[in-house]
Amino acid sequence: MGAKIVTGEAGYVLEDVPHLSDYIPDLPTYPNPLQDNPAYSVVKQYFVDDDDTITQKIVVHKNTPRGVHFRRAGPRQKVYFESDEVHACIVTCGGLCPGLNTVIREIVCGLNYMYGVKRVLGIDGGYRGFYAKNTISLTPKSVNDIHKRGGTILGTSRGGHDTSKIVDSIQDRGINQVYIIGGDGTQRGASVIFEEVKRRGLKVAVAGIPKTIDNDIPIIDKSFGFDTAVEEAQRAINAAHVESESFENCIGLVKLMGRYSGFIAMYATLASRDVDCCLIPESPFYLEGPGGLFEYIEKRLKENGHMVIVVAEGAGQELLSESIHSMTKEDASGNKLLKDVGLWISQQIKDHFAKKNKMTINLKYIDPTYMIRAIPSNASDNVYSTLLAQSAVHGAMAGYTGFTVGLVNGRQSYIPFYKITEKMNKVVITDRMWARLLSSTNQPSFLSVKDVIEDKKDEEPPQQQVLDEESCLDDNLVNKENSFI
């Protein structure tokens, strides 16, 4: 998809999202029904101005340009669909995540209560459900209590993306608004669907709601379900802590989600304060020798008699046996199939101390992955999921398409698909947030001075550039959500 860029004074850049009017000329517009909605009648300014934008970076220097902006989400004065003509559909793809049902509920209720839309379909079982399964009729009554349940009432799957068949189904059913909830692979699929819709000249708005429990989607402050995942991960860490304190030389080992990004492990560790060592995909570590993991474990056990280790699922993959074979296999969504680092590292620790004959250890391994994924979202994520859903509805009704919604520096924004899928959000281990974790756990960084210097070689001098996106994201998350500083 070609970028839709608008420039302005002082280095202002707006990375705009597509609009139906870009490829369908002379589309009629209609007054927004919200102007007669009692819920909005008391709001002084209930429509977003066309030139309202949100800056991607909020930390600037006096000599830096205004930088990249995104279009602000919210209701517009004119809409491009009449309520009676809207036939919407919702699909969920990929793994489970707390908040999925809340997003589904609020899209249905938002369309109905705010815009008077009565026809909303649920696509059963992910992308392939467009052409392989029956649809489900969704009404405010049928979705009323679903936010209290985990999972997704629509079912989900990985893969199944046949673009032509999906758009054929959209066209045949007369669907003109498509709401797609899923991670970066799903959003890439949504982008392809949008391109095909545009190629056929269809009046169909395609809106994405980014879903990743790992918080690895760039640009946005955080993904829905992340707060809930961190909160639930703490319960597993607490259980490991209780176990480890109750036995001599006991290690509580908790494996948390984080295929490529260690945000859940990092934030759960910081929130818990009971963790002695946190291992994530972004931070290499080694087992044997001075400064290695085994040496640190022995030191902590001698000092405290117990310890807790948190490991993200993608950590240490290069150390695992047969890693060359495992790294070449992928699931239906294109994600690498990883070996179980938790079981592997548990065995490595047991074998190491069994060989030494100096110290008898107990090891308790906890893997709460599916318990965390399957729970309902907490209060914070329920509110966030509601805002995302309503923002998506406002955008689609206003004629925007080929966009995803997300919180950027605390404001709901419309982001073009390519910005969401062009790279992955990762923990920056030479940044402040990881330093805070290291000072909290008192663990070694497992990096030599040479590693740090090499890692920083690619970074521009701080006096010439604002903090990079990941750094800003880390600090924004802390300032807004956790108040660690």
TrEMBL record:
<feature type="binding site">
    <location>
        <begin position="370"/>
        <end position="373"/>
    </location>
    <ligand>
        <name>substrate</name>
    </ligand>
</feature>
<dbReference type="InterPro" id="IPR012004">
    <property type="entry name" value="PyroP-dep_PFK_TP0108"/>
</dbReference>
<feature type="binding site">
    <location>
        <begin position="158"/>
        <end position="159"/>
    </location>
    <ligand>
        <name>ATP</name>
    </ligand>
</feature>
<feature type="binding site">
    <location>
        <begin position="257"/>
        <end position="259"/>
    </location>
    <ligand>
        <name>substrate</name>
    </ligand>
</feature>
<dbReference type="GO" id="GO:0005737">
    <property type="term" value="C:cytoplasm"/>
</dbReference>
<comment type="pathway">
    <text>Carbohydrate degradation; glycolysis; D-glyceraldehyde 3-phosphate and glycerone phosphate from D-glucose: step 3/4.</text>
</comment>
<keyword id="KW-0021">Allosteric enzyme</keyword>
<dbReference type="GO" id="GO:0003872">
    <property type="term" value="F:6-phosphofructokinase activity"/>
</dbReference>
<dbReference type="InterPro" id="IPR035966">
    <property type="entry name" value="PKF_sf"/>
</dbReference>
<dbReference type="GO" id="GO:0005524">
    <property type="term" value="F:ATP binding"/>
</dbReference>
<keyword id="KW-0547">Nucleotide-binding</keyword>
<comment type="subunit">
    <text>Homotetramer.</text>
</comment>
<keyword id="KW-0963">Cytoplasm</keyword>
<dbReference type="GO" id="GO:0046872">
    <property type="term" value="F:metal ion binding"/>
</dbReference>
<feature type="binding site">
    <location>
        <position position="313"/>
    </location>
    <ligand>
        <name>substrate</name>
    </ligand>
</feature>
<feature type="binding site">
    <location>
        <begin position="183"/>
        <end position="186"/>
    </location>
    <ligand>
        <name>ATP</name>
    </ligand>
</feature>
<keyword id="KW-0808">Transferase</keyword>
<dbReference type="InterPro" id="IPR050929">
    <property type="entry name" value="PFKA"/>
</dbReference>
<comment type="similarity">
    <text>Belongs to the phosphofructokinase type A (PFKA) family. PPi-dependent PFK group II subfamily. Atypical ATP-dependent clade 'X' sub-subfamily.</text>
</comment>
<feature type="binding site">
    <location>
        <position position="184"/>
    </location>
    <ligand>
        <name>Mg(2+)</name>
    </ligand>
</feature>
<comment type="function">
    <text>Catalyzes the phosphorylation of D-fructose 6-phosphate to fructose 1,6-bisphosphate by ATP, the first committing step of glycolysis.</text>
</comment>
<keyword id="KW-0418">Kinase</keyword>
<dbReference type="InterPro" id="IPR000023">
    <property type="entry name" value="Phosphofructokinase_dom"/>
</dbReference>
<feature type="site" description="Important for substrate specificity; cannot use PPi as phosphoryl donor">
    <location>
        <position position="185"/>
    </location>
</feature>
<keyword id="KW-0324">Glycolysis</keyword>
<feature type="binding site">
    <location>
        <position position="95"/>
    </location>
    <ligand>
        <name>ATP</name>
    </ligand>
</feature>
<dbReference type="GO" id="GO:0006002">
    <property type="term" value="P:fructose 6-phosphate metabolic process"/>
</dbReference>
<keyword id="KW-0479">Metal-binding</keyword>
<feature type="active site" description="Proton acceptor">
    <location>
        <position position="214"/>
    </location>
</feature>
<keyword id="KW-0067">ATP-binding</keyword>
<protein>
    <recommendedName>
        <fullName>ATP-dependent 6-phosphofructokinase</fullName>
        <ecNumber>2.7.1.11</ecNumber>
    </recommendedName>
</protein>
<dbReference type="InterPro" id="IPR022953">
    <property type="entry name" value="ATP_PFK"/>
</dbReference>
<feature type="domain" description="Phosphofructokinase">
    <location>
        <begin position="89"/>
        <end position="394"/>
    </location>
</feature>
<feature type="binding site">
    <location>
        <begin position="212"/>
        <end position="214"/>
    </location>
    <ligand>
        <name>substrate</name>
    </ligand>
</feature>
<dbReference type="Pfam" id="PF00365">
    <property type="entry name" value="PFK"/>
</dbReference>
<keyword id="KW-0460">Magnesium</keyword>
